[in-house]
Amino acid sequence: MSESHTPVTKSYFFGLLLILAALPSPSHAEKGNQELILSGGGGMGNFLIQQDSNAGAKLVGANWSYQFYDYPSQHHLQWWAQVSYSYMWDERAGGIEDRQHIVEVKPVLRMYPGAEAKGFFGEAGLGAAYLDEREFGNISLSTNLNFSMHFAAGYTFPGDCAVSLRYSHFSNGYTNTPNPGFDFFSLNWHIPF
């Protein structure tokens, strides 16, 4: 990342974290009904869904999740509403820097293999995303508004903090052409409150 954009990038990220930290929690919420998820990761090659590579890109993000349904059974299921902000950047030859701001809203299903919400879990989400740039590296999107989906695997520690590895994909779902897709991965730290 070029030196001229470093303060801007940091101020966006830390400003967002301060806003999220200052949000009041609803009085009826119990500890663990909400999560702040901090993310770091990068772009991916074209080996999954996207047609071109954005493998050199870097990503930071913050997500706020609210658990609106908890179903303990043989396999513990949880439904979460999630709002996310991610910032991606990529330096190319000649000092050109691509930047991308991504805002997502989606329901997320989390499943634990046991009866308790502890240990390993799998997660999937499907919703909507707004990407502020249609051009990013080798990828040319035809729309700013896109479908958003992710798949993750993680582990919840004693004390309810969790870590997860997430694959995210954005595309217009063939509502317009071209539809090259946009993929990235992230390592996420979940902080319940």
From TrEMBL:
Keywords, sorted A to Z: Hydrolase, Signal
Taxonomy, superkingdom: Bacteria
Keyword Acyltransferase: no
Coiled-coil regions listed in the entry: none
InterPro entries per record: Lipid-A_deacylase-rel (IPR018550)
Signal peptide from the UniProt entry: 1-29
MF GO annotations: hydrolase activity
The protein, known as: Acyloxyacyl hydrolase
Organism taxonomic ancestry: Bacteria, Pseudomonadati, Pseudomonadota, Gammaproteobacteria, Cellvibrionales
